[in-house]
Design brief:
Layout lengths: L1 E7 L13 E7 L18 E2 L17 H13 L7 E5 L2 H10 L4 E6 L2 H10 L3 E4 L5 H8 L6 E4 L20 H6 L16 H13 L9 E5 L5 H5 L10 E5 L5
Parallel strand pairs: 4-5, 4-7, 5-6, 8-9
Antiparallel strand pairs: 1-2, 2-3
Helix pairs in contact: 1-2, 1-6
GO molecular function: oxidoreductase activity, acting on the CH-CH group of donors, NAD or NADP as acceptor
Pfam families: ADH_zinc_N
Protein name: Alcohol dehydrogenase-like C-terminal domain-containing protein
Length: 253
């Protein structure tokens, strides 16, 4: 099974990747993975890492990895989000932080699945945080977005939960509102921007150095074994993680 991971080159016939290099990319749930310098299956190449002093390698799967890059490209390229605009973020602390602390959003409304996560989001940039598990979620969200907002960033996908609109067999339930409000809906995958990953990682690194992004509590790192991975990932559905859930198997030299 493929997985986004950080690994270390232990042997190489490549002029690009040397023994000892730290890399991030699509690897596999195995102890040792063989990867072509230029993948022939259309997959993305590995990204060489230059670790920042004082930070664990796991940040390249969180703040500096796909969650951070999704926030960067989603806000800049897809939403074209600008200073003083307002936004609702359905799960995604990097989007919350980047919108508020880097772009200087006028108002950020965050959606999360527990009281504790909502309180945490307010400490890192959210002006308002709404818990989608409470009975009056819709009323709270309506109050938080009174007068409408400029953008909505959904990190979790359409689902029948009360937090989001959902598809029935034929249409969006609120399709007419999409038309009359002249809304633009666009999906994207962070891999679309793979050639620009260095640009995004540089911007995120600068934001961290300027203390505009907080990554201390942005992830939950769990050291485990291959056999325990299904149990570990169950935390995603139990609210046991804060930010990105990262699994570590093995140690780097």
């Amino acid at each position: 099974m493929n997985v986004v991971a950080v690994g270390q080159v232990v042997t190489s016939k490549s002029s690009v990747y040397q023994v000892g290099d730290l890399v991030m990319g699509m690897l596999r749930w195995i102890a040792y993975a063989v990867h072509d310098e230029a993948p022939t299956d259309g997959g993305p190449p590995l990204t060489k890492l230059d670790p920042m002093p004082g930070f664990s390698l796991s940040v390249y799967l969180g703040a500096f990895g796909w969650p951070g890059l999704t926030a960067y490209f989603g806000l800049h390229d897809i939403l074209k989000f600008r200073k003083s605009e307002s936004i609702v973020v359905a799960v995604g602390n990097m989007v919350v932080q980047y919108a508020k602390n880097v772009i200087s959003a006028g108002k950020v409304v965050a959606i999360a699945g527990s009281k504790e996560k909502c309180e945490w989001l307010k400490t890192i940039g959210a002006d308002i945080a709404v818990n989608y598990e409470v009975a009056d979620f819709k009323q709270q969200l309506n109050a938080a977005t009174d007068g409408f907002v400029d953008a909505y960033f959904d990190n979790v996908g359409l689902t029948p939960s009360p937090a989001y609109n959902y598809l029935d067999e034929t249409r969006f339930p609120n399709y007419s509102q999409i038309i009359t409000s002249r809304l633009n809906l666009q999906g994207f995958i962070v891999l679309d921007n793979m050639p620009r990953f260095p640009e995004g990682m540089a911007a995120l690194t600068t934001a961290v150095k300027e203390r505009k992004l907080v990554i201390k509590d942005e992830e939950t790192l769990v050291r485990t074994t291959f056999e325990e991975i299904p149990k570990t990932w169950g935390m995603l559905f139990e609210g046991g993680n804060t930010g990105k859930l990262i699994t570590q198997v093995g140690e780097l030299d």
